[in-house]
């Protein structure tokens, strides 16, 4: 039988993998400390093959286990197990630990196992995540706070006693890796390259290595152009750079690629830095390509003198056609003196100079068109946001990027795979500049359905007043989706799940919002709202003669959410849709109060409901009623709300190449509904996330200021199929 070794770093033993192997009867030898700190665990087979990453290893063990159904009984259960494997790391985030406990505790209220009716690696993963916390979890086990979770945990422990052996060996009082077993070795090896970075089954997809990287010597850069705000696509690049810098104990530089003064501004610089901070990205320093303008000009002048570049005055359209057809420009044979004379005209910004550009003399016959004499410099008379009108010429990204990468000591330049054809150009320019080699590492661009990520197209919406600004909730910018109600933890989880794969990703928003719901639901406060239009008054004939108030939790299962005051009156407001669903004589449940029997339904001449008469039946069982209704007291203390829903800006899931986005605009992308809310909502803070019971999740965009101005609440998607506003 093939020998299998589990290798991992001494400070992060993969408890779930070790535990799963024990209960599954999979024989592995353990090589603790075989990998440097931060490395993903590896299963090494005697054949020379290997697997990498906690979740990949758990799936493998589930498939080869001697226990039946450890990886589910069918494909659906395997998918459910994968979701729990993705969820397990949340327990290790200190601020999210109790939220996660609450979520799983509620989930287990009527379940013995996490998936189906069998013990699975989902149970192993969550059990190990809790056991790996150490003393904090042990203290909670002794309390009554999470009874379902503790019941499940104790049951698993009793049924599979070998799990506790793994805990004894690798978990100290302060948690996993804090007090390692005496047998753990401390030795460092260079990280091995992941064999299959395209493994679509791996949910911890960032557990990959940089080719040729050395611990302590890696330097990466995140280089946005300051011509817009950071969007979800940029976030992937930013977080991937962050990951590799931390993975190799290296450096991360934030560099603004400010080579086009016509599009850039300090507003964009300031907001990009704000967004980078929002993502939790720590960097060594901030630099600008404009810091290198003088040396870049000196470099291009040197290359002109060496015959590696020339000045071309061919009209732009003709130049583009010649590049496509592989036809050399007539200016390619200019003498050095002719080129320098035209270059000087460019430097002065004369009319003659504005007709020219500098091109690299590479290879006009190369099948890769990016190598066909690319443009290095162009004239631009617009003032630059940092250096004003000092320069009349600016380098292109293609020329500046390799130069600054090499100059700043970048070891690995991370670029999305859409630039793949330009990699040869990047390396050729570096060679012509006679600069040190920089390794390009590709990853796939993150694309979202019904979403435009082009900053030029997003700018059109801003300039034409189609949105409120770059932080509009309909925008895919970090500020936009956060304003919509997305938690940054959800965005980070979502992007980490996509990983560094080179496969093209067209992702659904539903998956991101589902992750977000799992974060906000266990902790967000509950409030009540009734749609203002056509609301119906229910008169309770035996209701309280005088209004009275009870103090109840804002979240029944999360005490830190605080308390709220609920007023009880003999007249209460219901949504018209709820009133229309009631039959005369029916017993219904008024949430947070009790049952009531509807004695009479009043209608006008058009058969439209105008009022209800009922009586309280508080001794009735809430289990026996079909309708559980939200309601508001008929008092002057209610607050006015504006509930805002959003739709996608474009109506097509994916625009094909050549399609104009202007032909695919959604006519209606924002809808406001007036509502009344409970008086406690006067205390909502801007940015606070709540649940309006039976209506959904909302983020407070404009809090209470005065009675005449409504509180503005933005609807937060919950991952279910979104209803279009245009139907």
From TrEMBL:
Residues 195-206 have a biased composition (Polar residues). PROSITE patterns: AA_TRNA_LIGASE_I. It holds the Pfam family tRNA-synt_1c. Residues 628-701 form the tRNA synthetases class I (E and Q) anti-codon binding domain. Residues 178-206 are annotated as: Disordered. Residues 525-612 form the Glutamyl/glutaminyl-tRNA synthetase class Ib anti-codon binding domain. Its EC number is 6.1.1.17. One of its GO terms (cellular component) is cytosol. It is found in: Cytoplasm. Residues 217-521 form the Glutamyl/glutaminyl-tRNA synthetase class Ib catalytic domain. The keyword ATP-binding applies. SUPFAM superfamilies: GST C-terminal domain-like, Nucleotidylyl transferase, Ribosomal protein L25-like. One of its GO terms (molecular function) is glutamate-tRNA ligase activity. Keywords: Aminoacyl-tRNA synthetase, ATP-binding, Cytoplasm, Ligase, Nucleotide-binding, Protein biosynthesis. It catalyses: tRNA(Glu) + L-glutamate + ATP = L-glutamyl-tRNA(Glu) + AMP + diphosphate. One of its GO terms (biological process) is reproductive structure development. It comes from the Eukaryota. It is an enzyme of class 6 (ligase). NCBIfam families: gltX_arch. Belongs to the class-I aminoacyl-tRNA synthetase family. Glutamate--tRNA ligase type 2 subfamily. This is glutamate--tRNA ligase. It comes from Rhynchospora pubera.
């Amino acid at each position: 039988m093939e020998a299998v070794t589990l290798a991992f770093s001494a400070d992060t033993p993969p408890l779930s993998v070790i535990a799963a192997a024990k209960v599954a009867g999979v024989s592995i030898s353990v090589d603790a400390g075989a990998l440097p700190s931060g490395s993903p665990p590896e299963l090494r087979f005697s054949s020379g093959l290997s697997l990498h990453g906690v979740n990949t290893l758990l799936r493998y063990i589930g498939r080869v286990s001697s226990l039946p159904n450890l990886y589910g009984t069918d494909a659906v259960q395997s998918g459910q197990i994968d979701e729990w494997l993705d969820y397990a790391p949340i327990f290790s985030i200190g601020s999210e630990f109790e939220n996660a406990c609450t979520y799983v505790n509620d989930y287990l209220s009527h379940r013995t196992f996490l998936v189906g009716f069998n013990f699975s690696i989902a149970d192993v993963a969550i059990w190990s995540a809790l056991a790996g916390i150490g003393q904090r979890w042990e203290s909670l086990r002794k309390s009554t706070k999470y009874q379902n979770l503790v019941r499940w945990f104790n049951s698993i422990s009793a049924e599979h006693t070998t799990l506790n052996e793994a805990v004894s060996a690798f978990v100290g009082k302060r948690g996993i890796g804090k007090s390692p077993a005496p047998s753990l070795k401390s030795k460092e090896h260079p990280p091995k390259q992941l064999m299959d970075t395209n493994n679509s089954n791996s949910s911890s997809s960032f557990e990959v290595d940089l080719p040729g990287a050395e611990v302590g010597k890696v330097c990466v850069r995140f280089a946005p152009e300051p011509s817009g705000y950071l969007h979800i696509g940029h976030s992937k690049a930013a977080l991937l750079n962050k990951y590799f810098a931390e993975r190799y104990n290296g450096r991360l530089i934030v560099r603004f690629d400010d080579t086009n003064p016509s599009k850039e501004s300090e507003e964009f610089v300031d907001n990009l830095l704000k967004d980078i901070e929002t993502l939790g990205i720590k960097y060594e320093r901030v630099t600008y390509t404009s810091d290198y303008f003088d040396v870049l000009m000196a470099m291009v002048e040197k290359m002109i003198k060496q015959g590696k570049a020339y000045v071309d005055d061919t009209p732009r359209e003709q130049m583009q056609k010649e590049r496509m057809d592989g036809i050399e420009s007539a200016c390619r044979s200019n003498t050095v003196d002719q080129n320098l004379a035209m270059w000087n005209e460019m430097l002065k910004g004369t009319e003659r100079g504005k007709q020219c550009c500098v091109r690299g003399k590479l290879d006009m016959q190369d099948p890769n068109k990016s190598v066909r004499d690319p443009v290095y410099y162009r004239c631009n008379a617009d003032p630059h946001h940092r250096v004003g009108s000092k320069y009349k010429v600016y380098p292109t990204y293609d020329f500046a990027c390799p130069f600054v990468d090499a100059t700043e000591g970048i070891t690995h330049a991370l670029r999305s795979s859409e630039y793949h054809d330009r990699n040869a150009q990047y390396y050729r320019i570096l060679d012509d500049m006679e600069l040190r080699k920089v390794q390009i590492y590709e990853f796939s661009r993150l694309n979202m359905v019904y979403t435009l990520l082009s900053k030029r197209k997003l700018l059109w919406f801003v300039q034409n007043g189609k949105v409120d600004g770059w932080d509009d909730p309909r925008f895919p910018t970090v500020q936009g989706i956060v304003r919509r109600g997305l938690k940054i933890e959800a965005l980070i989880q979502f992007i980490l799940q996509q990983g560094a794969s080179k496969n093209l990703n067209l992702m659904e928003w539903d998956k991101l919002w589902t992750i977000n719901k799992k974060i906000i639901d266990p902790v967000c406060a509950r409030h009540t709202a009734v749609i203002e239009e056509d609301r119906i008054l229910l008169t309770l004939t035996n209701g309280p003669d005088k209004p009275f108030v009870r103090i109840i939790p804002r979240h029944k299962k999360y005490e830190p959410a605080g308390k709220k005051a609920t007023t009880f009156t003999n007249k209460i407001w219901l949504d018209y849709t709820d009133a229309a669903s009631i039959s005369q004589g029916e017993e219904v449940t008024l949430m947070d109060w009790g049952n009531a029997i509807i004695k009479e339904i009043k209608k006008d001449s058009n058969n439209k409901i105008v009022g209800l008469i009922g009586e309280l039946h508080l001794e009735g069982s809430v289990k026996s009623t079909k309708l559980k209704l939200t309601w508001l007291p008929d008092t002057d203390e209610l607050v006015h709300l504006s509930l805002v829903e959003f739709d996608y800006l474009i109506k097509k899931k994916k625009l094909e190449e050549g399609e104009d986005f202007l032909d695919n605009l959604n006519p209606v992308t924002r809808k406001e509904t007036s509502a009344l809310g409970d008086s406690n909502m006067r205390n909502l803070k801007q940015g606070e996330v709540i649940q309006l019971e039976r209506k959904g999740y909302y983020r407070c965009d404009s809090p209470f200021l005065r009675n005449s101005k409504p509180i503005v609440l933005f609807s937060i998607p919950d991952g279910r199929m979104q209803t279009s506003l245009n139907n």
